[in-house]
Amino acid sequence: MKRSVLFVLLILASTSLAFASSYIGGSISVMNDTYSEDNYKVVFNQAAVSLEGANYFSASERFGIAYQFGFGSSTPKFVTSILTLEGDPTSVLTGSLMGTVKHILNRDLSLETALGYGYTQSSYEDSSSESTSRISKIEAKIGAVYELNNDFVLLGGVRLSIPFSVSKTTKSGSSTTTDTISLESGSGFGTYIGMAYQY
To answer: Percentages helix, strand, coil for the chain, rounded to the nearest 5?
Structure first.
């Protein structure tokens, strides 16, 4: 899954040169992913640096595809009815691929709304094992694009998500097991800010 998402995002980034009003750049984001299973809740507090872009295909330059791929640090937290355990910061990979609509507010400012697929992969360790959680989710984005000049734009906005699939791989010694989590509930919320080059 991770390789497939990365491959698609790299293709989109490379083809952005061909479409007017597209952009590609970087962003810094803070995200919180939460899901509940049985009698406990898992929370991933994340900070990431990302490749961020959008390609607009239509003649009106309103409809297109938005994408994001990033890496950073995640702090896992496990919450039960009687205690809360916080793990050490570990690595995180994030990605999304969404259909987007651009709403032009004035000459310099536009609003983007997007909906599609999001992915988060976070790893963490304890004294005896290493675990990796992979979260697939429906993700939405509401963001502003402010044109500084003909070449550069400022980006900023929020991301909201609902997970629909979570798997967990645990390595302990020479043994590796992968389980699909039975989700009871879950949500995600984050913000981002960045700068991009406009084509």
So the answer is: 10, 70, 20
